[in-house]
Amino acid sequence: MSYIAKPKVVHPGLPRNELGLSMRDYEGGMSTLCAGCGHDSITAALVQAAFELSLPPHRMAKLSGIGCSSKTPAYFLSASHGFNSVHGRMASVATGANAANNELVYVGVSGDGDTLSIGLGQFCHAIRRNLNMLYIIENNGVYGLTKGQFSASADIGSKAKKGEVNRQPPIDPCLLALSIGCTFVARSFSGDKEQLVPLIKAAIRHRGFAMIDVISPCVTFNNHEGSTKSYDFTRRHYQPAVYADYVPPAQEIRSEQAAGSLQAVTMHDGSRLLLHKVGADYDATDRLAAFGYLSRHQAEGAIVTGLLYIDENSPDMHELQATPERPLNSLPYAELHPGQKGLDAIQARFR
Amino acid sequence: MQPTDTRNPDYFHKVVDCQWGCPAHTDVPGYIRLIAQGRYTESYMLNRQANVFPGILGRVCDRPCEPVCRRARVEEKPVAICRLKRVASDLRDEIDELLPKAPQQKNGKRVALVGAGPASLTVANDLMPLGYEVVIYEAQAVPGGLMRSNIPSFRLPVEVLDEEIAMIIDMGVDLRLGTPVKSMKALLAEGYDAIFVGSGAPRGKDLRLPGRDEAAANIHIGIDWLESVAFEHVDKIGERVLIIGVGNTAMDCCRTSLRLGARDVKVMARKPRQFFKASAWELEDAEEENVEIVVNHSPKSFVVEGGRLVGMLFDKMSYEFDASGRITSEKIEGEVLIPCDDVVLAIGQENAFPWIERDTGIEFDKWDVPVVDKSTYQGTRPGVFFGGDAAFGPKNIIWSVEHGHQAAISMHKHCHGEDVAERPAYGMNLSTAKMGIHEWSYSNDYDGTPRRVVPQMDLRERFKKLDLEVELGFSAEQFTKEVERCLNCDVQTVFTDKLCIECDACIDICPTRCLTIVPNAPEEELRGKLSAPAENLEQALFVSGPLPQTGRVMVKDENICLHCSLCAERCPTGAWDMQKFTLKVPYAGKPATTGTESTS
Ligand SMILES: Cc1cc2nc3c(=O)[nH]c(=O)nc-3n(C[C@H](O)[C@H](O)[C@H](O)COP(=O)(O)OP(=O)(O)OC[C@H]3O[C@@H](n4cnc5c(N)ncnc54)[C@H](O)[C@@H]3O)c2cc1C
Ligand SMILES: Cc1ncc(C[n+]2csc(CCOP(=O)(O)OP(=O)(O)O)c2C)c(N)n1
Ligand code: SF4
Ligand code: SF4
Ligand code: SF4
Ligand SMILES: [Mg+2]
User: Fold this and answer.
1) Contact residues, chain B to chain A, C-beta under 8 Å
2) Cys-Cys with A141: which of A168, A229, B316, B382 at CB 3.0–4.6 Å?
3) Beta carbons of B523 and B597 less than 8 angstroms apart
4) Domains assigned to chain B
């Protein structure tokens, strides 16, 4: 960590978005993570994405559990709502928040430990409900905060800093999510913002549960030789399958964006995603194919990245439960409260 | 782009905008840091090494460093570089022991300097410690040149001038006052080993309009008139005064008039304000004293009644401009008579060399100014050098000083049979500023304080006497704030490409988005592809060699780097380091490699 705060200089050339805000207005407090931690880059990508989407910070909510990754919401969007919950419980808190107010943009940040170990159940059920949120797993293969024990995403054969080798099979969050019906599944790398920022934008615009598994090296405990989650290893095995371009609702698709083998997906709010497929036969709307592609390449040791699967047509939690469209805090008291008569009627149904 | 060659001192020197902008390459951030540490004497000496007259320049320098100061790009106003120099000068201790001395043992060479202005004085300053016998011929009864005769004492007190000139003369210069050189031939005949012409640009331009001769008694040529005031031959002027011209001389003329009894002073400009030659701060100071600046009036004639000047006739002008602000056409809208008692002409100065015979091998060009080499300062006759206003027309003190340094290098070489065209190289030193994990040997935290304003003497007080210094200098409360505004541009970001693991930490933390890792490309393309587009073409891009993991390059846009050190603090591998850059400037007889190093 640094002793000085990042200087707030407002220089004349600072770009502004539609709201008149600069990127600096989307930042948070000074990070206390280790210098060079991948999580800080993801923070920067979130700041950039929110700035570019011109999201009003006060209409966003950040949620997290416990871990270095879960600390990061303190470092972006200081003007947004936030809830730093207990270990592995972020998904539940997000579910509650979303149930009460579906007008906010929900950004959940978790770690591979927080999600795939203690929080695995919560994670799976949030996916099943198709909770409308962005769920980022900052995946470094270790419990960073507790000094680098293997996590559930550690690969077989990956070496810890002191030399011991992991022998348990990993849980791949993308395969897991695909298998239980996640409607937006992506993988990326903290060291590739060109890929990550558009993915975050698309994920925020997706209506439903959008999961991005971001390989995010832990410089202190898992960036050595023999680790399969280091900067170097990730770069050597990195295999983008699809590049996503996010095109806002009113904007024309530029001709250079339209070139190549393209798949266009129209999102719920009218914005479009242009998917540039690196593997020519890849179809990001075909769940089974995605599952197969991912499994095959994983067996070959490749880290497949990009927007792997998207389904814009499934109902989200509110639609599934037929809950009110409007936030509970904006409902008139009479609507919110059934009154004695209403309550009696409900209870009568159970007698 | 090719990887940047940071071993060439020019690269990092250019990053220190103020030092690069200063003709004499004063180590500005170095001396500001010394002031911040309360080391005023060292700060003064660091200044003196480069600019020779810190007390004088801390009051009246043209300050080419300030418009280029990085702080002016980061926010609006530059660091008050010039007035901080004065702080060092005002608060320093006795420095006799620290000043250069002439050796007992002379080197047997004799040089003659014509004129005792800042250019000649600098030559003497540089050559005396090398054992030269230096003779200065000065027409006036006092040394200092225009600094004494033209810069009014309410801007530059005589004591400051006397003291800093004495530091040079007291090394044992043979100063011959009241001794104008009347013939170059005669001077050449005296057998000096080298001659330096630092006689200035002494001729003020006249304005030949109808009525000029009839009204001669009340029409004054600015620089001559200021000289008469300085030497106390003139001590009053009429109540209503018109100053013609809006350069810095005009500003001194109008403010001097106010101190000699004028009540109503108008500065008459032919063109609109954006074309004024005067520095913004000089205009401000004049307007603060209620001088009226009248634009778009073109002088037409002097109006004389009963043999006496009663006013001036002007054409009232209007102009049209193109998109870039240039005048495309002008129109006379009518005639205006402005009554007045005196007129001061401040429309320019020229060189004049009536005393240099044209058959001495010293060539003059078609404008009748000597042909002088831009790097050696030598005229066409070997052994005769020019500097200051005499070399390329009127400039300012700090340029005169730099000419003096360069000419001294040439004279030293000439006297030792070396090729004057071979210029000594600049050197540099880099040393890490790291003190601890996140501790640096400089004040790296950005201070958002706005520029402090130098307090001035009350408007009711300042006109009582001609020589009351108007500026009072920064208070301690002010300068301790002002020093923190300096961004320490000399503490450089130094990059080692093979250490970088491309984690993006530096890129993410940079508060002004200076850094980018991208595939290499030609400069024009790169400039558009950075975290923030690099639109200031005058500011360099640093480009690293290929990075180990991806072969991309680290690019830094130098334009608005705050030198905050956060990139270096965030880098897990030490690929970025903050290193103090010291420019080593060569002087006569002192190659850059043995130059005194900054103590900051
Ligand atoms: C009104 C006015 C205000 C100015 N204000 C500023 C300012 O605020 N800041 C700034 O940086 N610059 C200012 N300048 C410009 C600055 O003063 C000059 O650029 C600088 O003094 C030039 O130095 P120099 O050594 O070349 O010559 P000068 O200062 O002109 O000195 C030349 C000397 O040579 C002597 N001399 C000339 N001919 C002979 C001869 N034949 N024999 C013997 N001696 C001779 C002269 O008497 C004179 O003393 C100002 C100029 C004027 C006119
Ligand atoms: C209920 C509970 N159990 C265990 C812990 C100890 N603990 C803190 S963080 C953490 C793991 C964090 O790992 P991960 O989510 O991968 O985050 P990282 O630090 O790697 O970013 C553990 C086990 C805890 N805080 N609470
Ligand atoms: S900020 Fe300081 S070092 Fe940088 S240009 Fe300005 S005065 Fe010079
Ligand atoms: S010192 Fe580094 S972090 Fe600070 S402004 Fe300069 S490049 Fe950016
Ligand atoms: S912080 Fe250091 S290692 Fe990371 S990208 Fe910057 S220079 Fe490279
Ligand atoms: Mg982890």
Assistant:
1) 73-75, 438-439, 444-446, 448, 501-505, 507-509, 511-513, 532, 535, 549-550, 560, 562, 564-566, 569-573
2) A229
3) no
4) 10-96 (1.10.1060.10), 99-202+351-415 (3.50.50.60), 204-348 (3.50.50.60), 491-598 (3.30.70.20)
Which residues, in sequence order, are CB contacts of B359 under 8 Å at separation 6+? none
**Is there an atom of ligand 5 within 6 Å of B555 CB?**
no
User: Taking CB atoms and an 8 Å limit, are A219 and B535 in contact across chains?
Assistant: no
* Residue A351 near chain B (CB below 8 Å): no
**Which atom from ligand 1 is nearest to the alpha carbon of B204?**
53
Q: Could you name the CATH architecture of A23-334?
A: 3-Layer(aba) Sandwich (3.40)
Phi-psi region of B16 (alpha: psi -120 to 50; beta: other; left: phi over 0): beta
**How far B556 CA sits from the closest chain A CA (Å)?**
16
Determine the atom of ligand 2 nearest the C-alpha atom of A111: 15
Q: Are B409 and B587 in contact (CB under 8 A)?
A: yes
**Burial letters for B481-490: b for 16+ Cβ neighbours within 10 Å, e otherwise?**
bbbbbbbbbb
Question: pLDDT tens, B369-424?
Answer: 999 999 999 999 999 999 999 999 999 999 999 999 999 999 999 999 999 999 99
> Which among B108, B132, B107 has a CA at the least distance from the CA of B120?
B132
Sequential DSSP letters for B367-382: TS-B---TTT-B-SST
Q: Tokens 């250069």 belong to which residue?
A: B100
Q: What is the pLDDT of residues A173-203, one digit of tens each?
A: 999 999 999 999 999 999 999 999 999 999 9
Least confident span in A88-92, A113-117, B513-517, B589-593 = B589-593
Interface test with A, best of B508, B531, B550 (most A CBs within 10 A): B508
Whole-angstrom distance, CA of residue B292 vs CA of residue B254: 10
Q: β-strands A81-84, A60-64: how paired?
A: parallel
Q: What is the pLDDT, as a whole number, of residue A172?
A: 97
Pairing outcome for strands B515-518 and B553-557:
antiparallel
Testing the interface with A: which of B70, B485, B570, B576 to mutate, by most A Cβ within 10 A?
B570
Instruction: Say how many Å lie between the CA of residue A224 and the centre of ligand 5.
Output: 16
How many Å lie between the alpha carbon of A270 and the closest alpha carbon of chain B? 29
Question: What is the average per-residue pLDDT within B158-162?
Answer: 98
Burial of B3 (0-12, 13-18, 19+ CB in 10 A): middle
Per-residue pLDDT, B368: 86
What is the whole-number distance in angstroms between the Cα of residue B481 and the centre of ligand 3? 14
Contact flag B438-A2 (C-beta cutoff 8 Å): yes
* Ligand nearest the Cα atom of residue A7: 4
* Ligand 5 contact, A249 CB (< 6 A): no
Bridge partners, residue B312, by sequence? B302, B338
What's the pLDDT tens digit per position in B93-132? 999 999 999 999 999 999 999 999 999 999 999 999 999 9
Q: What six digits make up the tokens of B561? A: 């780097």
Q: Is the CB of B223 under 6 A from ligand 1?
A: yes
The CA distances from residue A89 to A214, A222, B30, B193, B539, in Å, are 20, 25, 54, 89, 50
Helices (H) and strands (E) in chain A, counts: 13, 13
Structure tokens at B101: 């001395």
Nearest to A7 among B501, B562, B569 (CB): B562
Whole-number pLDDT of residue A1:
55
Q: Are A131 and A158 in contact (CB under 8 A)?
A: no
Would you say B493 and B576 are in contact if contact means Cβ atoms under 8 Å apart?
Answer: yes
Q: What is the ipTM of this complex?
A: 0.89
B510 in ligand 4 pocket by Cβ < 6 Å? Answer: yes
Interface list for A 218-257 with B (CB within 8 A): 219, 223, 231-232, 235
